[in-house]
Amino acid sequence: MQGSLRLTVLAVLTTFLLAGCSSTESLSDSNEDAPTNSEAVAEADTLSEQKTPINEQVRRLFVLEARILAAPDSTAADSLHTGRLLNQAMGELSALLDRDPSVIERDAVRDVYRGLTKEYRRYHRYEGSADSMETAKGDIFSVRAGLFASLEQVDEPLLEDVMAPEAIQNIETEIPLTMNRLVKQSLDYLKSDPSKHVDSWLQREQTYGPMIDHILAQEGVPHELRYLAMIESGLNPRARSWAGAVGMWQFMRGTGRMYDLKVDGWIDERRDPEKATRAAARHLSDLYDSLGDWHLVLAAYNCGEGCVRRAVRRTERYDDIEDPNYWEVYDRLPRETRGYVPMFIAATILASQPEKHNIEPPKAAPAYAYDYVAVHGSMLTVYEIARLAETDADVIRALNPELRQRTLPPSREKYYIRIPVGSYPTFAWGYADLPESKKRPATSYRVRSGDTLSEIADRFGTSTNRLRRTNGIRGSMINIGQTLVVPVRNYDSAIQNASPQQPMRVQYGAVTPVRPLDRIVITDRGLQRSPAEQQSPPVRTASTRSSEQTSSSSASSSSTSETVSTKAKSSSSEATASTESSSSTSESSSSASQKASSSSSSASIVTVRRGDTLSDIAARHGVSTRNLQRWNRLGSSRIHPGQTLRLTAPPAGTSTYTVRRGDSLDRIARTHGVTIRQLRDWNDLRGSRIYPGQTLEIRDGGGDRPIIYTVQRGDTLSTIAKSYGTSVGELRMINELRGSRIYPGQKLKIETN
Predict the structure, then answer these.
(1) Is 581 left (phi over 0), alpha (psi -120 to 50) or beta?
(2) 602: which residues sit within 8 A by CB, 6+ positions away?
(3) Contacting residues for 32 by C-beta, under 8 A, at least 6 apart
(4) Would you say the C-alpha torsion 569, 571, 574, 577 has a positive or negative sign?
(5) Strand, coil or helix: what is 709?
(6) Could you tell me which residues come within 8 angstroms of residue 571 by beta carbon, excluding any fewer than 6 positions away?
(7) CA distance 520 to 504
(8) Residues ≥6 apart with Cβ < 8 Å to 689
(9) What average pLDDT is seen over the chain?
């Protein structure tokens, strides 16, 4: 009944549109079979954009929507036909909005937009009912639509009667690269025209690949998951799907919040490459702890854990299969999820060794490297930041894709901003010259003419009710000139080991990917460097800004030197600046100092480098592999780059704790039954400030008393084990757990020896 009513409404709307059209050409039957790639539709429409009136294009979309609603969906052929119609409609809608975004203000366009996106979500079985008026952004979605449509046509899709590519034999992965007809079809599709998708993916991989590798290694998940971001977004931080998923890892808003990704009117941290990658790694790790099979984990990442669990239960019940794998539950998964894992496997095979598949090397791309500085100033615009760093606003936007406004978000603490490599001294000098009003934290607001409480709340990323409670306002009445206290939030650094307010140099792929820079201090004598908490880059040259220009910042870590100059505060005062040596110089000196310290008798910690094995490290430092495993509480010989290992036996009764987001010294002390003063003494802390990723030493006197930990919301056995330097297996054994399920409020015993 509802379907017939909807069709009637559509018919009336179509008649209305026809009455106002200058052309009454009908949609021919030849248009019914849509191309499998919506990019082709968009390109075709672009060529005829001057010939087709807007009303005619909208009418075509209404007709397509009517055919989609009327199409049966009982057989595979029916489903494929509906998918093609949807693909054509989405392609034409996207082309229309790309050419003239203002048409979305028309009621008819908004109606057809909502109808088509609703059908798109229903067809692909997306959960939720978000009604966003933002269109999809990124070429990955048309690629996926075309690929998944082609997979629907494969006969006996799970048969493994295909020849595995020679390249697959040399790829070492933890996730099985199963070869069957689906994977073969996916490979053929991606190789058919790499210029449309694979080439751009491989180019972006040069920029973001080292960063993704570093974070995945830190989080202890398989390195091949880097290719998951390829099929999710094409490695595009600004990608946005029709379903409302955003960013390189395509987080929905609710899932993003579960992993501390903030989304408000000022920022969307789902678009932050580093924060989103870390959130994705933790989400995937949690899914693996729950499901225990990487193929099922990938499926759950696409359609949700509940969707996969339902498919598993039905397969166990109706097919009498115990603990079925992905391929055994394949027929009970949504359409898109059935093609998702084959596409991941194909992308992994193709991107791991593109030369083996006759794919041309990608064009050179800039490295993901930057100087990371913390600044106050919600009134600072992207254009002012670019001016201070002597770069373009587009460069600042590219380095900070999480920003949604042209100004920095209001924050109680300083906000971390990425600027081009080498531009920090120049930026610091210009920032110091700004008026204080520009650098003041946004904690209050003076009401101006025309302001309303709701508008002020939206401006500062808070709610009207919270604004009322904070200021003791009962209704909505505010007065011009009234000063309101604004409850703004804090935004954390994307770099886990960045100490608060400390400028950092970030160059992924280097021996030391994140290292502190000297603070720049402005005095009456000009610009000076303040000693950093760690060793600073050596000084090479000094000059004045009046005689030399600041060296151009480089996004690449391969530059041989950086020359930094500053301007004089007055004609009688000469400002000094320092030049940092090349990254290769600092890397070699860092490596040399690491070797020297590790060879000395006082060395107790070593950082794992790419290519290291546990036995190699043991031989290099004259200890046994077994002792390394025992001292570092390793359940196996698996280690990863960036991991720190203890080279000596810890003191009796000593354990380590890795600080997590939201922790405080008080909470950690209470959890472990020690005092804050003891924590400070053991870890040489001057104050109470700690940061996520920091490792704290905790002593318990005798070491024979277990820690009692209360499970918090969001905890998993894996995250708890990592925090306390133990293993999931040991937690299960000590607490007599059969599986991995835990719940908030549950008490767990943790051995500290």
Answers:
(1) beta
(2) none
(3) 67, 85
(4) positive
(5) strand
(6) none
(7) 12
(8) 500
(9) 74
* Model confidence pLDDT, tens digit, residues 156-179: 889 887 876 665 666 778 899 999
3-state secondary structure of 267: strand
Rg (CA), the chain: 29
Whose structure tokens read 């058919």?
Answer: 192
582 with 560: CB under 8 angstroms? yes
Q: Name, of 10-24, 66-80, 277-291, 619-633, the range with top average pLDDT.
A: 277-291
Cα–Cα distance for residue pair 421/507, rounded to 1 Å: 9
**DSSP conformation class of 723:** H
* DSSP structure class, residue 128: S
Q: Who contacts 294 (Cβ-Cβ below 8 Å, separation ≥6)? A: 174, 175, 176, 222, 288
DSSP characters over 488-540? -B----SSTTPPTT--EEEETTSSSSEEE-PEEEEETTEEEEEPPSSPPPPP-
Q: How many CB atoms lie within 10 A of CB 568?
A: 16
Write out the H or E segment, with its range, that includes residue 696. strand 695-699
Q: Cα separations (Å) of 114 from 31, 46, 133, 251? A: 22, 23, 8, 21
Q: What does the alpha-carbon distance between residue 185 and residue 191 come to, in Å, rounded to a whole number?
A: 10
Structural element, H or E, at residue 265: none
Q: Are 690 and 665 in contact (CB under 8 A)?
A: yes
Structure tokens at 238: 């600004």
CA contacts within 13 A on the Cβ side of 603: 18
| Residue 418 three-state SS | strand
How many angstroms from the chain centroid is the CA of residue 700? 38
Query: For residue 565, is pLDDT > 70?
Result: no
Structure tokens at 333: 């998964």
Instruction: Give per-residue pLDDT as tens, 73-111.
Output: 666 566 677 777 887 887 788 777 767 767 777 778 877
Residue type (1 letter), 425: P
Q: Identify any residues that bridge with 507 across adjacent strands, giving them in sequence order.
A: 369
Residues 6+ apart with CB under 8 A from 679: 665, 668, 669, 685, 696, 698
Q: Which helix (H) or strand (E) segment is 750 a member of?
A: strand 747-750
Strand order in 415-419's β-sheet? Answer: 415-419, 369-375, 504-507, 514-516
Q: What long-range pairs does 671-677 form, CB within 8 A, spacing at least 24?
A: 671/707, 671/709, 671/710, 672/698, 672/700, 672/707, 673/700, 673/705, 673/707, 674/698, 674/699, 674/700
> How many residues are given for the chain?
753
Please give the model's pTM, rounded to 2 decimal places: 0.59
Of 68 and 529, the structure prediction assigns the larger pLDDT to 68
Residues 6 or more apart whose Cβ sits within 8 Å of residue 616: none
Q: How far apart are CA 465 and CA 494, in angstroms?
A: 30
Residue type, 266: W
Note the pLDDT of residue 16. Answer: 33
DSSP string, 307-367: HHHHHHHHHHHHS--SS--HHHHGGGS-HHHHHHHHHHHHHHHHHHSGGGGTPPPPPP---
